[in-house]
Amino acid sequence: MTVDVAVVGSGHNALVGAAYLARQGRSVTVFEADTVPGGAVSTVERFPGYRVDRGSSAHLMFRHTGIAEELDLAAHGLRYLDCDPWAFAPTPPGGTAPPIVFRADLDATAASIAAACGAREATAYRRFVGDWAPRARATMAAFGGSPSPARLGRAFWPTKGRASVAQLSRTYLASGDQLLDEYFDDERLKAALAWFGAQSGPAMSEPGTAPMVGFAALMHTLPPGRAVGGSGALTTALLGRLGADGGTVELGTTVTELRRSGRAWQVTVAGPDGPRTVTARTVLAGCHVLTTLGLLERGGYDGARIGRWRRTIQIGPGVGMVLRLGTTEPPRFDGVPLADQAGLGLLVADRGHLHRARGDMLAGDAPRRPAVLAMTFSGLDPSIAPAGRHNTTLWAQWYPYALGGAGARRDWAAVAEAEADRIVAETGRWAPGFAETVEHRHVQTPATLESELGLLGGNVMHVEMALHDMLLFRPLPELAGGRVPDAPGLALAGASMHPGGGVNGSSGRIAARLLARDLGHLARWRL
To answer: Which of 10, 55, 226, 512 has the most Cβ atoms closer than 10 angstroms to its Cβ?
Structure first.
Protein backbone atom coordinates (compact mmCIF):
# COMPACT_ATOMS: atom_id res chain seq x y z
CA MET A 1 0.00 0.00 0.00
CA THR A 2 1.37 3.40 -1.01
CA VAL A 3 -0.23 6.73 -0.11
CA ASP A 4 0.67 10.37 -0.48
CA VAL A 5 -0.01 11.08 3.19
CA ALA A 6 -0.12 8.76 6.19
CA VAL A 7 -1.73 10.48 9.17
CA VAL A 8 -0.90 9.32 12.69
CA GLY A 9 -3.91 9.79 14.96
CA SER A 10 -7.39 11.14 14.34
CA GLY A 11 -7.53 14.11 16.69
CA HIS A 12 -9.24 17.15 15.24
CA ASN A 13 -5.96 18.79 14.20
CA ALA A 14 -4.88 15.64 12.36
CA LEU A 15 -8.26 15.39 10.63
CA VAL A 16 -8.17 19.06 9.61
CA GLY A 17 -4.78 18.52 7.97
CA ALA A 18 -5.96 15.29 6.34
CA ALA A 19 -9.07 16.99 4.97
CA TYR A 20 -7.13 19.87 3.40
CA LEU A 21 -4.73 17.46 1.69
CA ALA A 22 -7.49 15.16 0.46
CA ARG A 23 -9.28 18.16 -1.05
CA GLN A 24 -6.12 18.79 -3.07
CA GLY A 25 -6.48 15.35 -4.61
CA ARG A 26 -3.86 13.62 -2.45
CA SER A 27 -4.34 10.03 -1.31
CA VAL A 28 -4.68 10.19 2.46
CA THR A 29 -5.08 7.44 5.06
CA VAL A 30 -5.56 8.13 8.77
CA PHE A 31 -4.43 5.50 11.27
CA GLU A 32 -6.09 5.62 14.69
CA ALA A 33 -5.31 3.22 17.54
CA ASP A 34 -8.65 3.84 19.24
CA THR A 35 -11.94 2.45 17.99
CA VAL A 36 -13.51 5.89 18.47
CA PRO A 37 -12.20 8.62 16.15
CA GLY A 38 -11.51 12.18 17.20
CA GLY A 39 -9.28 11.83 20.24
CA ALA A 40 -10.31 14.47 22.79
CA VAL A 41 -12.92 15.86 20.36
CA SER A 42 -15.28 12.90 20.50
CA THR A 43 -18.67 12.06 21.99
CA VAL A 44 -20.01 8.67 23.03
CA GLU A 45 -23.13 7.22 24.66
CA ARG A 46 -21.60 7.00 28.12
CA PHE A 47 -24.98 6.38 29.83
CA PRO A 48 -28.20 5.18 28.14
CA GLY A 49 -29.59 8.04 26.09
CA TYR A 50 -26.77 10.47 26.94
CA ARG A 51 -24.31 11.85 24.39
CA VAL A 52 -21.26 12.51 26.58
CA ASP A 53 -18.06 14.24 25.50
CA ARG A 54 -14.82 12.38 26.14
CA GLY A 55 -12.70 15.54 26.08
CA SER A 56 -13.51 19.09 25.00
CA SER A 57 -17.02 20.53 25.27
CA ALA A 58 -17.18 24.21 24.33
CA HIS A 59 -15.24 25.25 21.21
CA LEU A 60 -13.87 28.69 22.13
CA MET A 61 -11.40 29.19 19.26
CA PHE A 62 -12.40 27.00 16.32
CA ARG A 63 -15.05 29.33 14.92
CA HIS A 64 -12.51 32.17 14.83
CA THR A 65 -10.16 30.26 12.48
CA GLY A 66 -12.28 30.10 9.30
CA ILE A 67 -11.54 26.37 8.93
CA ALA A 68 -15.20 25.32 9.07
CA GLU A 69 -15.97 27.62 6.13
CA GLU A 70 -12.88 26.68 4.12
CA LEU A 71 -13.72 22.97 4.41
CA ASP A 72 -17.48 23.56 4.11
CA LEU A 73 -18.14 21.49 7.19
CA ALA A 74 -21.75 22.68 7.36
CA ALA A 75 -22.39 20.57 4.24
CA HIS A 76 -21.23 17.58 6.30
CA GLY A 77 -23.59 18.20 9.18
CA LEU A 78 -21.67 20.56 11.47
CA ARG A 79 -23.95 23.03 13.19
CA TYR A 80 -22.97 25.31 16.05
CA LEU A 81 -25.15 26.89 18.70
CA ASP A 82 -23.89 30.06 20.34
CA CYS A 83 -22.95 29.65 23.99
CA ASP A 84 -24.68 32.84 25.04
CA PRO A 85 -24.17 33.66 27.86
CA TRP A 86 -20.62 32.44 27.26
CA ALA A 87 -19.82 32.39 30.98
CA PHE A 88 -21.37 33.12 34.35
CA ALA A 89 -20.15 33.51 37.92
CA PRO A 90 -22.95 32.50 40.31
CA THR A 91 -23.68 34.08 43.64
CA PRO A 92 -20.97 32.72 45.99
CA PRO A 93 -21.94 30.34 48.81
CA GLY A 94 -23.48 32.38 51.62
CA GLY A 95 -23.42 35.56 49.54
CA THR A 96 -26.20 37.84 48.37
CA ALA A 97 -24.70 39.67 45.40
CA PRO A 98 -26.29 38.88 42.02
CA PRO A 99 -24.50 36.55 39.61
CA ILE A 100 -22.17 37.99 36.97
CA VAL A 101 -23.40 36.93 33.53
CA PHE A 102 -21.11 37.37 30.51
CA ARG A 103 -23.22 37.63 27.37
CA ALA A 104 -22.14 38.15 23.78
CA ASP A 105 -23.87 41.53 24.00
CA LEU A 106 -21.43 43.90 25.69
CA ASP A 107 -24.16 46.20 26.99
CA ALA A 108 -25.96 43.32 28.68
CA THR A 109 -22.69 42.12 30.21
CA ALA A 110 -21.87 45.58 31.50
CA ALA A 111 -25.34 45.83 33.05
CA SER A 112 -24.81 42.52 34.85
CA ILE A 113 -21.40 43.63 36.12
CA ALA A 114 -22.85 46.94 37.31
CA ALA A 115 -25.57 45.14 39.27
CA ALA A 116 -23.12 42.67 40.84
CA CYS A 117 -19.97 44.75 41.25
CA GLY A 118 -20.82 48.41 40.72
CA ALA A 119 -20.87 50.99 37.94
CA ARG A 120 -17.12 51.61 38.13
CA GLU A 121 -16.38 47.96 37.30
CA ALA A 122 -18.83 47.98 34.40
CA THR A 123 -17.06 51.00 32.90
CA ALA A 124 -13.69 49.35 33.43
CA TYR A 125 -14.95 46.19 31.70
CA ARG A 126 -15.98 48.19 28.64
CA ARG A 127 -12.48 49.68 28.53
CA PHE A 128 -10.94 46.21 28.93
CA VAL A 129 -12.94 44.89 25.96
CA GLY A 130 -12.11 47.93 23.86
CA ASP A 131 -8.39 47.53 24.55
CA TRP A 132 -8.16 43.75 24.28
CA ALA A 133 -10.54 42.81 21.45
CA PRO A 134 -8.08 43.98 18.75
CA ARG A 135 -5.20 42.35 20.64
CA ALA A 136 -7.14 39.08 20.84
CA ARG A 137 -7.79 39.27 17.10
CA ALA A 138 -4.06 39.78 16.57
CA THR A 139 -3.40 36.70 18.69
CA MET A 140 -5.78 34.62 16.58
CA ALA A 141 -4.06 35.92 13.44
CA ALA A 142 -0.72 34.85 14.88
CA PHE A 143 -2.19 31.44 15.64
CA GLY A 144 -3.30 30.91 12.05
CA GLY A 145 0.14 30.46 10.49
CA SER A 146 3.58 29.04 11.18
CA PRO A 147 5.33 30.87 14.04
CA SER A 148 7.95 32.80 12.08
CA PRO A 149 9.42 35.93 13.72
CA ALA A 150 8.18 38.16 10.91
CA ARG A 151 4.62 36.84 11.06
CA LEU A 152 4.46 37.10 14.82
CA GLY A 153 5.88 40.61 14.71
CA ARG A 154 3.20 41.75 12.27
CA ALA A 155 0.45 40.17 14.35
CA PHE A 156 1.46 41.26 17.83
CA TRP A 157 3.18 44.60 17.17
CA PRO A 158 1.28 46.16 14.27
CA THR A 159 1.90 49.77 15.29
CA LYS A 160 4.96 51.87 14.51
CA GLY A 161 7.45 53.47 16.84
CA ARG A 162 9.71 52.45 19.70
CA ALA A 163 7.27 53.56 22.42
CA SER A 164 4.38 51.52 21.03
CA VAL A 165 6.55 48.42 20.65
CA ALA A 166 7.79 48.75 24.23
CA GLN A 167 4.27 49.24 25.59
CA LEU A 168 2.78 46.34 23.66
CA SER A 169 5.69 44.10 24.63
CA ARG A 170 5.03 44.85 28.27
CA THR A 171 1.29 44.28 27.74
CA TYR A 172 1.72 40.85 26.21
CA LEU A 173 4.40 39.76 28.66
CA ALA A 174 2.41 40.78 31.76
CA SER A 175 0.68 38.25 33.98
CA GLY A 176 -3.07 37.81 33.88
CA ASP A 177 -3.29 38.92 37.51
CA GLN A 178 -1.42 42.12 36.71
CA LEU A 179 -3.79 42.87 33.83
CA LEU A 180 -6.81 42.32 36.08
CA ASP A 181 -5.42 44.51 38.83
CA GLU A 182 -4.80 47.31 36.35
CA TYR A 183 -8.42 47.36 35.18
CA PHE A 184 -10.59 46.21 38.09
CA ASP A 185 -11.11 46.60 41.83
CA ASP A 186 -13.75 43.93 42.49
CA GLU A 187 -12.10 40.65 43.46
CA ARG A 188 -15.05 38.53 42.44
CA LEU A 189 -14.95 39.90 38.89
CA LYS A 190 -11.18 39.45 38.76
CA ALA A 191 -11.51 35.86 39.98
CA ALA A 192 -14.09 35.01 37.31
CA LEU A 193 -11.91 36.37 34.50
CA ALA A 194 -8.80 34.73 35.99
CA TRP A 195 -10.57 31.37 36.04
CA PHE A 196 -11.59 31.87 32.40
CA GLY A 197 -7.97 32.66 31.47
CA ALA A 198 -6.62 29.76 33.51
CA GLN A 199 -8.43 27.27 31.28
CA SER A 200 -5.29 27.45 29.14
CA GLY A 201 -3.40 25.75 31.98
CA PRO A 202 -0.95 28.17 33.63
CA ALA A 203 -1.73 30.16 36.73
CA MET A 204 -2.61 33.76 35.98
CA SER A 205 0.29 34.84 38.20
CA GLU A 206 2.76 33.64 35.53
CA PRO A 207 4.38 36.05 33.03
CA GLY A 208 2.82 36.15 29.59
CA THR A 209 -0.66 35.06 30.71
CA ALA A 210 -2.30 38.47 30.16
CA PRO A 211 -3.44 37.47 26.62
CA MET A 212 -5.20 34.42 28.08
CA VAL A 213 -7.40 36.74 30.12
CA GLY A 214 -7.62 39.22 27.25
CA PHE A 215 -9.06 36.51 25.00
CA ALA A 216 -12.35 37.00 26.87
CA ALA A 217 -12.82 40.26 24.95
CA LEU A 218 -13.15 38.30 21.70
CA MET A 219 -16.15 36.41 23.09
CA HIS A 220 -18.21 39.55 22.49
CA THR A 221 -17.43 39.23 18.78
CA LEU A 222 -18.23 35.54 18.45
CA PRO A 223 -18.98 33.47 21.57
CA PRO A 224 -17.91 29.87 22.10
CA GLY A 225 -19.78 27.35 20.01
CA ARG A 226 -21.47 24.17 21.09
CA ALA A 227 -21.63 21.62 18.27
CA VAL A 228 -25.11 20.11 18.05
CA GLY A 229 -24.95 16.50 19.20
CA GLY A 230 -21.77 16.97 21.21
CA SER A 231 -18.18 18.02 20.69
CA GLY A 232 -17.62 14.95 18.50
CA ALA A 233 -19.93 16.41 15.86
CA LEU A 234 -16.88 18.34 14.64
CA THR A 235 -15.01 15.07 14.17
CA THR A 236 -18.00 13.55 12.36
CA ALA A 237 -18.09 16.48 9.95
CA LEU A 238 -14.34 16.30 9.33
CA LEU A 239 -14.63 12.57 8.61
CA GLY A 240 -17.47 13.32 6.17
CA ARG A 241 -15.34 15.93 4.42
CA LEU A 242 -12.36 13.58 4.29
CA GLY A 243 -14.40 10.67 2.94
CA ALA A 244 -16.06 12.82 0.28
CA ASP A 245 -12.60 13.63 -1.09
CA GLY A 246 -11.40 10.02 -1.09
CA GLY A 247 -9.57 9.91 2.24
CA THR A 248 -9.81 6.82 4.41
CA VAL A 249 -9.59 6.09 8.13
CA GLU A 250 -8.46 2.85 9.77
CA LEU A 251 -9.65 2.58 13.36
CA GLY A 252 -8.14 0.14 15.82
CA THR A 253 -4.86 0.43 13.92
CA THR A 254 -1.79 1.56 15.83
CA VAL A 255 1.25 3.13 14.22
CA THR A 256 4.24 1.47 15.87
CA GLU A 257 7.19 2.86 13.90
CA LEU A 258 8.13 5.67 11.51
CA ARG A 259 11.22 4.97 9.39
CA ARG A 260 12.66 7.12 6.64
CA SER A 261 13.63 5.03 3.61
CA GLY A 262 15.01 6.75 0.52
CA ARG A 263 12.54 9.45 -0.50
CA ALA A 264 9.59 7.92 1.35
CA TRP A 265 8.46 6.80 4.78
CA GLN A 266 7.89 3.25 5.90
CA VAL A 267 5.01 3.37 8.37
CA THR A 268 4.58 0.21 10.42
CA VAL A 269 1.03 -0.32 11.67
CA ALA A 270 -0.61 -3.01 13.78
CA GLY A 271 -4.29 -3.60 13.09
CA PRO A 272 -6.92 -6.30 13.43
CA ASP A 273 -5.18 -8.38 10.73
CA GLY A 274 -1.73 -8.06 12.26
CA PRO A 275 1.26 -5.81 11.50
CA ARG A 276 2.07 -4.46 8.06
CA THR A 277 4.12 -1.69 6.47
CA VAL A 278 2.64 1.21 4.52
CA THR A 279 4.76 3.32 2.16
CA ALA A 280 3.95 7.01 2.44
CA ARG A 281 5.41 9.92 0.51
CA THR A 282 4.76 12.12 3.55
CA VAL A 283 3.57 11.75 7.14
CA LEU A 284 1.36 14.02 9.20
CA ALA A 285 1.82 13.19 12.90
CA GLY A 286 -1.14 14.49 14.85
CA CYS A 287 -0.51 12.65 18.12
CA HIS A 288 1.37 13.87 21.18
CA VAL A 289 4.86 15.06 20.22
CA LEU A 290 6.48 12.62 22.65
CA THR A 291 4.54 9.78 21.06
CA THR A 292 5.81 10.86 17.64
CA LEU A 293 9.39 11.01 18.91
CA GLY A 294 9.02 7.47 20.22
CA LEU A 295 7.86 6.27 16.79
CA LEU A 296 10.85 7.96 15.15
CA GLU A 297 13.29 6.48 17.66
CA ARG A 298 11.97 2.98 16.97
CA GLY A 299 12.50 3.75 13.29
CA GLY A 300 16.18 4.49 13.76
CA TYR A 301 16.17 8.25 14.38
CA ASP A 302 18.98 9.62 16.56
CA GLY A 303 18.11 8.42 20.08
CA ALA A 304 20.50 10.78 21.85
CA ARG A 305 18.90 13.81 20.18
CA ILE A 306 15.41 12.55 21.05
CA GLY A 307 16.52 11.99 24.62
CA ARG A 308 17.58 15.63 24.92
CA TRP A 309 14.27 16.79 23.49
CA ARG A 310 12.31 14.61 25.89
CA ARG A 311 14.05 16.19 28.87
CA THR A 312 13.32 19.69 27.54
CA ILE A 313 9.66 19.36 26.54
CA GLN A 314 7.50 20.38 29.51
CA ILE A 315 4.35 18.28 29.79
CA GLY A 316 2.94 19.50 33.09
CA PRO A 317 1.48 20.66 35.26
CA GLY A 318 -1.73 21.84 33.54
CA VAL A 319 -3.74 18.86 34.75
CA GLY A 320 -7.29 18.36 35.96
CA MET A 321 -10.09 15.93 36.73
CA VAL A 322 -13.37 15.66 34.84
CA LEU A 323 -16.75 14.39 35.97
CA ARG A 324 -19.32 13.50 33.32
CA LEU A 325 -22.73 13.40 34.97
CA GLY A 326 -26.27 12.45 34.09
CA THR A 327 -28.66 14.36 36.33
CA THR A 328 -32.38 14.71 36.98
CA GLU A 329 -32.13 18.50 36.77
CA PRO A 330 -29.54 21.17 36.06
CA PRO A 331 -27.53 22.75 38.88
CA ARG A 332 -29.67 25.24 40.81
CA PHE A 333 -27.38 28.26 40.91
CA ASP A 334 -29.02 31.21 42.67
CA GLY A 335 -30.15 33.67 40.04
CA VAL A 336 -28.87 31.62 37.09
CA PRO A 337 -31.71 29.76 35.33
CA LEU A 338 -30.97 26.95 32.89
CA ALA A 339 -31.28 29.38 29.97
CA ASP A 340 -28.31 31.31 31.35
CA GLN A 341 -26.16 28.17 31.79
CA ALA A 342 -25.26 28.01 28.09
CA GLY A 343 -21.56 28.60 28.75
CA LEU A 344 -18.88 28.15 31.37
CA GLY A 345 -19.88 28.21 35.04
CA LEU A 346 -16.98 29.91 36.86
CA LEU A 347 -17.29 28.63 40.44
CA VAL A 348 -14.68 30.80 42.15
CA ALA A 349 -15.13 34.01 44.16
CA ASP A 350 -11.51 35.01 44.80
CA ARG A 351 -8.15 34.30 43.20
CA GLY A 352 -6.79 32.86 46.44
CA HIS A 353 -9.00 29.83 45.76
CA LEU A 354 -7.15 29.31 42.48
CA HIS A 355 -3.69 29.98 43.93
CA ARG A 356 -4.19 27.47 46.75
CA ALA A 357 -5.47 24.77 44.37
CA ARG A 358 -2.45 25.17 42.10
CA GLY A 359 -0.06 25.25 45.04
CA ASP A 360 -1.50 22.01 46.36
CA MET A 361 -1.06 20.39 42.96
CA LEU A 362 2.57 21.49 42.73
CA ALA A 363 3.14 19.83 46.11
CA GLY A 364 1.69 16.58 44.75
CA ASP A 365 -1.61 16.86 46.60
CA ALA A 366 -5.22 17.09 45.53
CA PRO A 367 -6.46 20.66 46.09
CA ARG A 368 -7.83 21.22 49.57
CA ARG A 369 -10.79 22.91 47.89
CA PRO A 370 -11.41 22.04 44.23
CA ALA A 371 -11.79 24.88 41.75
CA VAL A 372 -14.67 23.87 39.48
CA LEU A 373 -15.86 24.82 36.02
CA ALA A 374 -19.48 23.66 35.49
CA MET A 375 -21.07 23.13 32.07
CA THR A 376 -24.65 21.97 31.41
CA PHE A 377 -25.17 22.11 27.66
CA SER A 378 -28.34 19.99 27.61
CA GLY A 379 -30.40 23.17 28.09
CA LEU A 380 -28.89 24.51 24.87
CA ASP A 381 -28.94 21.17 23.02
CA PRO A 382 -31.56 18.74 24.40
CA SER A 383 -30.36 15.99 22.03
CA ILE A 384 -27.47 15.08 24.37
CA ALA A 385 -29.67 13.83 27.22
CA PRO A 386 -32.94 11.89 27.58
CA ALA A 387 -36.14 13.89 27.99
CA GLY A 388 -36.35 15.32 31.48
CA ARG A 389 -32.65 14.69 32.20
CA HIS A 390 -29.50 16.78 31.93
CA ASN A 391 -25.89 16.31 30.91
CA THR A 392 -23.43 18.16 33.17
CA THR A 393 -19.63 18.27 33.00
CA LEU A 394 -17.53 19.39 35.96
CA TRP A 395 -13.90 20.27 35.23
CA ALA A 396 -11.67 20.67 38.29
CA GLN A 397 -8.26 21.97 37.32
CA TRP A 398 -4.91 21.49 39.00
CA TYR A 399 -4.89 17.90 40.13
CA PRO A 400 -1.43 16.29 40.09
CA TYR A 401 -0.68 13.45 37.72
CA ALA A 402 1.68 11.96 40.32
CA LEU A 403 -0.15 12.00 43.65
CA GLY A 404 2.31 12.40 46.49
CA GLY A 405 4.88 14.26 44.40
CA ALA A 406 8.38 13.04 45.06
CA GLY A 407 7.26 11.26 48.23
CA ALA A 408 5.12 8.16 48.63
CA ARG A 409 3.16 7.75 45.40
CA ARG A 410 -0.54 6.97 45.60
CA ASP A 411 -2.65 5.22 43.01
CA TRP A 412 -5.27 7.38 41.31
CA ALA A 413 -7.64 4.42 41.09
CA ALA A 414 -7.73 4.25 44.88
CA VAL A 415 -8.77 7.88 45.39
CA ALA A 416 -10.69 8.77 42.22
CA GLU A 417 -14.19 8.27 43.59
CA ALA A 418 -13.45 10.11 46.83
CA GLU A 419 -12.04 13.06 44.90
CA ALA A 420 -15.07 12.99 42.62
CA ASP A 421 -17.29 13.22 45.72
CA ARG A 422 -15.36 16.32 46.80
CA ILE A 423 -15.85 17.96 43.38
CA VAL A 424 -19.59 17.26 43.50
CA ALA A 425 -19.70 18.62 47.06
CA GLU A 426 -17.90 21.82 46.00
CA THR A 427 -20.43 22.27 43.20
CA GLY A 428 -23.18 21.73 45.76
CA ARG A 429 -21.88 24.67 47.78
CA TRP A 430 -22.81 26.89 44.83
CA ALA A 431 -25.90 24.90 43.77
CA PRO A 432 -27.50 23.42 46.92
CA GLY A 433 -28.97 19.96 46.46
CA PHE A 434 -26.91 19.21 43.36
CA ALA A 435 -25.50 15.91 44.69
CA GLU A 436 -29.02 14.49 45.03
CA THR A 437 -29.71 15.04 41.32
CA VAL A 438 -26.81 12.87 40.07
CA GLU A 439 -27.96 9.55 38.56
CA HIS A 440 -24.92 8.63 36.46
CA ARG A 441 -21.23 9.45 36.92
CA HIS A 442 -18.10 8.84 34.88
CA VAL A 443 -14.83 9.99 36.44
CA GLN A 444 -11.76 10.96 34.42
CA THR A 445 -8.56 11.42 36.43
CA PRO A 446 -5.21 12.59 35.05
CA ALA A 447 -4.29 8.90 34.79
CA THR A 448 -7.39 7.94 32.80
CA LEU A 449 -7.09 11.01 30.56
CA GLU A 450 -3.68 9.59 29.62
CA SER A 451 -4.79 5.99 29.16
CA GLU A 452 -8.05 6.74 27.33
CA LEU A 453 -7.11 9.72 25.17
CA GLY A 454 -3.31 9.57 24.90
CA LEU A 455 -2.94 12.79 26.89
CA LEU A 456 0.46 12.09 28.40
CA GLY A 457 0.73 13.18 32.01
CA GLY A 458 -3.01 13.86 31.92
CA ASN A 459 -2.35 17.28 30.36
CA VAL A 460 -5.20 18.21 28.02
CA MET A 461 -2.91 20.79 26.39
CA HIS A 462 -0.20 18.15 25.66
CA VAL A 463 2.58 20.61 26.53
CA GLU A 464 2.37 23.35 29.16
CA MET A 465 1.02 26.64 27.79
CA ALA A 466 3.49 28.80 29.69
CA LEU A 467 5.22 31.69 27.91
CA HIS A 468 8.45 29.74 27.34
CA ASP A 469 6.48 26.92 25.69
CA MET A 470 4.51 29.01 23.20
CA LEU A 471 4.96 30.51 19.72
CA LEU A 472 8.61 30.12 18.59
CA PHE A 473 9.29 27.82 21.56
CA ARG A 474 6.45 25.28 21.21
CA PRO A 475 7.18 22.53 22.07
CA LEU A 476 10.84 23.61 21.81
CA PRO A 477 12.67 25.80 19.28
CA GLU A 478 14.02 22.94 17.13
CA LEU A 479 10.48 21.62 16.49
CA ALA A 480 8.49 24.87 16.57
CA GLY A 481 8.09 25.08 12.79
CA GLY A 482 6.20 21.80 12.69
CA ARG A 483 9.26 19.98 11.38
CA VAL A 484 11.73 17.48 12.82
CA PRO A 485 15.34 18.11 11.74
CA ASP A 486 16.66 15.50 9.30
CA ALA A 487 13.16 14.05 8.80
CA PRO A 488 11.99 15.43 5.43
CA GLY A 489 8.38 14.87 4.50
CA LEU A 490 7.21 14.76 8.12
CA ALA A 491 4.97 17.49 9.58
CA LEU A 492 3.81 17.76 13.19
CA ALA A 493 0.32 18.79 14.29
CA GLY A 494 -1.80 18.60 17.42
CA ALA A 495 -1.94 20.43 20.74
CA SER A 496 1.80 19.87 21.24
CA MET A 497 2.48 22.31 18.42
CA HIS A 498 1.85 26.00 17.76
CA PRO A 499 -0.64 27.45 18.57
CA GLY A 500 -1.27 24.97 21.41
CA GLY A 501 -4.19 23.26 23.09
CA GLY A 502 -7.90 23.75 22.87
CA VAL A 503 -10.18 23.10 19.90
CA ASN A 504 -8.47 25.19 17.24
CA GLY A 505 -7.45 23.17 14.18
CA SER A 506 -4.79 25.64 13.04
CA SER A 507 -1.85 23.29 13.62
CA GLY A 508 -3.48 20.80 11.26
CA ARG A 509 -3.93 23.43 8.57
CA ILE A 510 -0.32 24.55 9.02
CA ALA A 511 0.90 20.95 8.68
CA ALA A 512 -1.18 20.50 5.53
CA ARG A 513 0.49 23.54 3.96
CA LEU A 514 3.94 22.13 4.74
CA LEU A 515 3.14 18.73 3.25
CA ALA A 516 1.48 20.24 0.18
CA ARG A 517 4.82 21.87 -0.60
CA ASP A 518 6.66 18.61 0.05
CA LEU A 519 4.36 16.68 -2.25
CA GLY A 520 4.85 19.26 -4.98
CA HIS A 521 8.59 18.61 -4.87
CA LEU A 522 8.21 14.83 -4.57
CA ALA A 523 6.04 14.71 -7.69
CA ARG A 524 9.24 15.04 -9.69
CA TRP A 525 10.61 11.80 -8.26
CA ARG A 526 9.53 8.20 -8.60
CA LEU A 527 9.27 6.23 -5.36
So the answer is: 10
